[in-house]
Amino acid sequence: MFKETKILFNSKMALIVSWLLLLFHCQVDAQWQATTKGPEIKFQIFAEKDKIKPGSTNKIVFQFILENKWHINSNKPLDEFLVPTQLSLEQSDIIKIQKVVYPEPKSVKLSFSEEPLSVFEGEFLIGVELKVGESAPTKKSIEIPFTLKYQACDDKQCLPPKTLTITYQINLDESETLASEETLKIINKVNWERFESPEASQPIESPENTFTENRSSSLVTPSKKWKDLIKSFNVIGRLDGYANKSEFLGFIEDTIERKKNNLKNKTIDSSIYTLLLIVIGGLALNLTPCVLPVIPLNIAIIGAGARAGSKIKGLLLGGAYGAGIALVYGGLGIAVVLGFSKTFGTINSTAWFNTIISILFFLLGLAMFDVFLLDFSKFQSNIKLDKFRKGSFTLAFIMGGISALLAGACVAPVVISTIIHAQDLYSQGYKIALFMPLLLGVGMALPWPFLGAGLTLMPKPGKWTEYVKYAFGVLLILISIYYGYTAYTIYTVKRVEETSSDWYTSLEPGLEESQKTGRPLIIDFWATWCKNCIVMNKRVLTQPEVKEKLSGFVKVKFQAENPNSPEIRDVLEHFQVLGLPTFIILSPKK
Description:
It is a single chain. This protein has 590 residues and is of the alpha+beta class. It has three domains: 41-204, Thiol:disulfide interchange protein DsbD, N-terminal domain (Immunoglobulin-like), CATH 2.60.40.1250; 225-259 and 501-588, Glutaredoxin (3-Layer(aba) Sandwich); 267-492, no CATH class. It has 19 helices and 17 strands. The protein has helices spanning 2-8, 11-35, 181-187, 213-216, 225-229, 245-285, 295-302, 311-339, 341-347, 351-368, 393-405, 412-427, 436-445, 448-452, 464-498, 507-517, 531-539, 544-549, 566-574; strands at 41-47, 49-52, 57-66, 71-73, 86-89, 95-101, 106-108, 117-120, 123-132, 140-150, 152-153, 162-172, 177-178, 233-240, 521-526, 554-559, 582-588. It is rod-shaped.
């Protein structure tokens, strides 16, 4: 039976199932998008009179039902920056508001606020008493456009202020007709004695036009440049809503950890390639005019090659010579790198230090073009090794070490630059850089066992060896340019930091600095009407532990005060920001 069922499930059935799954996924996704746009406010309208004559009044009650966990600010919020709930009527010569009656607000205390908030939640009634002018025409229906302005929040986020348009139709006639008893019971639930003046219920300007001076003074409108800059970044972290100190620190740490895990394989791969290039570079140093011509001489001094007596002994003597080179460079590198790691770790992020390194690499590069001579091999003649006979492994090892320590004019600049660069990388946390000098020596040592065995692997010296040396010179000058650019970047960034606060108030300079320095960027989307944002800024972001954790970030406070502005809306839509506060962490692409 199972086999028959399996046969019936052919490609057409699989296609149908795939379409059904896709349809289900789209429906779920659409439902999710609908629920993340904020709470749905349901409403019903109840009027005291079904028909009303000119010159009389009519009481209207709006019954609002708000989804669980959400609330809206009351008509008189306790914080001056919070957006009040306001029911209003467009100006009309025929119909005017006499009274507006808001319900008794609830005092709630949420996780982010030490002080209670005045809110409406669940089901609540707002009453309006209208007066129809004497000149109103009879036997006519008039549509009355009401607007409810409100701001919804939950325990974590505040959504941007919204406007709900409500249209009610009033019937004018020569005589009046009361509504049903059920409707009148609802009308009487409103305490019509606690009303506001008509002026308090007049239309207020839309949120984009109602900023007080202290709201708009720091408001920065983003240009379109950010759209080009953002293409060079990846979103690596996101936090929606209010978070206490421990939650926010956890968010930062989790984001950093995820970034490390995502980049772990890439880092390992790049490190392997870097070390491989160092080995190849060491091998290439044997092809420079300072090394290649003297290889036969050094083979003769250690008693290798044809004088070794056997290929195996010659191979071992060559190996001992190469081991001397590798171990001297490795030991020298470890001594320098570990000996100065604390000093380098302190100063390697300064502009002046990178400038000095840039100049040093430039001079080492010039030495490869024979602008000046950097040659220690001339001191080899002062070293007496007469007590060691040719063909001795001790002699071969010592000679390899001496040739490494007293490097020639083609080798010394490269060795010095490798140690300096390894020190700089190690102080930045790249522990694998400790092996760079050793691997440079391994590269130089690779041919020696074969040369000691009498194999003629190396090409004949010639003019072309000069070009190998020049290639190393170009490489050193390129590294010099890299350190020079780093120094310039650090200098310009420090200048910017000295003339601005700890947080940028504009998106573009934050993106530019992150791109230059390679530091991650954190964006705090906030607004003055967002109580959660204000509290989190005072209670969480000012904590020493949080400030220390964010010290390695470029920080931007993006004020989304006017979410309906096209420029602000573009940014919010790009990052899919639905409520405030929202924190986005970006990492520049490598």
